[in-house]
Each structure stands twice: as structure tokens, then as C-alpha cells.
């Protein structure tokens, strides 16, 4: 794992599999509260419909994944993918506690994940798609998991130095 004390400029996707994922989980309510307005706006824009099959890349604590599952129910499904085992385990527990059954979580790197039950109708990511070291390859892989004409809805932030929350 990369050194976290080198500053926010060095934040990489794999950091979320360890220390950053554990930190996010420990402060889940606070962090999700901070980004909730953006997630809510992205969910409104996505306008999911019942019956759709959706991938949620970088699903974090599973909040958006659970919201998507409710929107695509009863016949749709959503799979949340995150590189953090801590977050995917917690997300599964949160979904179960909420009584959401048309949902699954996979601990994997979205840049390389392969899914036997592809293709999916939609790709969604709230702040989970900007850590790919080779974005072209990562999005080519994600594209291979989607049906022709699938829709993608993403929220991304700029460089860490431009986001005050990362400069603390």
C-alpha cells in the first residue's frame, strides 16, 4: 500500500482497500452526509426504472447502491463493486438490515472486474471512477460489462489539491 503521509496528491485506488476504506467505514455517517447532496442529484439525474440491471462502481458504504436497488425493484437488480473488503462487507450488512434483496456486493477493482452475469443496463458511480491508474483500459473493461446502448452516470471530483476536504 502506498504511504498515506505523502499527501493527498498520492491517493490511489488501492489505498481504499486498506487504511482509507477502514477510515471511511469508521466515519460512514459523516462522510456520506457530506456527499449526500451530490449523490441525491446524481440519483435524480440517473432516473432508474424498475427492471434495470445496474453496476455501482466504487459503491463505498452502499448507500447509493441500496437506493438504486429500491428504484429498480421488484424485477431489477444492482451490484455494488468496491475495492475495500471492509466497505463491501458493511454494505451487504446494511442492505440486509434494510430488507433489500435485489442487491449484491463484490470486493473487486472496477478496472479489471469480470462478471459472469453481464451485460448490465446501466453503470453508476458516485466518486468511485476517478482512481483508475489507466482510465482508458478501466473504462474499456467496464464497457465490456454493459449492453449496447447502456447509460453511464458518474460524479467525479477534481484533483485532491482542489478539494478542501482532502487538504486537512
Features of this protein?
disordered N terminus; Rossmann fold; 5 strands; 5-stranded parallel beta sheet; single chain; alpha/beta; 168 residues
The CATH topology turns out to be: Rossmann fold
Indicate the CATH class. Alpha Beta
Helical proportion, percent range? 25-40%
Provide the succession of SSEs: HHEHEHEEHE
CATH superfamily: Vaccinia Virus protein VP39
Strand order of the largest sheet: 3-2-1-4-5
Mean pLDDT: 83
What is the beta-strand fraction?
Answer: 15-25%
Q: How many domains make up the 3D coordinates?
A: 1
CATH architecture: 3-Layer(aba) Sandwich
Structural class comes to alpha/beta
Distance between the termini: 21 Å
The shape, in one word, is globular
Structural notes for this entry:
The longest helix is centred in the first third of the chain and has 19 residues. Helix 1 packs parallel to helix 4 and helix 2 packs parallel to helix 3. The protein has 168 residues and is an alpha/beta fold. The chain has one domain: Vaccinia Virus protein VP39 (Rossmann fold, 3-Layer(aba) Sandwich), CATH 3.40.50.150. 36% of the residues lie in helices and 20% in strands. Strand 2, helix 4 and strand 3 form a beta-alpha-beta unit. The relative contact order is 0.18. The protein has a five-stranded parallel β-sheet, with helices on both faces.
Q: Can you summarize this structure?
A:
With 168 residues, the chain is of the alpha/beta class.
Amino acid at each position: 500500500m502506498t504511504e498515506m503521509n505523502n499527501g493527498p496528491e498520492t491517493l490511489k485506488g488501492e489505498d481504499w482497500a486498506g487504511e482509507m476504506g477502514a477510515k471511511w467505514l469508521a466515519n460512514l455517517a459523516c462522510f456520506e452526509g457530506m456527499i449526500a447532496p451530490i449523490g441525491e442529484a446524481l440519483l435524480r439525474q440517473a432516473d432508474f426504472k424498475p427492471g434495470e440491471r445496474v453496476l455501482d462502481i466504487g459503491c463505498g458504504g452502499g448507500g447509493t447502491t441500496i437506493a438504486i436497488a429500491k428504484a429498480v425493484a421488484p424485477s431489477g437488480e444492482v451490484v455494488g463493486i468496491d475495492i475495500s473488503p471492509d466497505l463491501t462487507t458493511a454494505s451487504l450488512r446494511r442492505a440486509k438490515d434494510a430488507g433489500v434483496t435485489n442487491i449484491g456486493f463484490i470486493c473487486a477493482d472496477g478496472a479489471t472486474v469480470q462478471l459472469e452475469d453481464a451485460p448490465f443496463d446501466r453503470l453508476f458511480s458516485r466518486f468511485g471512477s476517478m482512481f483508475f491508474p489507466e482510465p482508458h483500459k478501466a473504462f474499456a473493461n467496464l464497457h465490456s460489462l454493459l449492453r449496447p446502448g447502456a447509460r453511464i452516470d458518474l460524479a467525479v471530483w477534481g484533483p485532491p489539491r482542489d478539494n478542501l476536504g482532502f487538504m486537512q
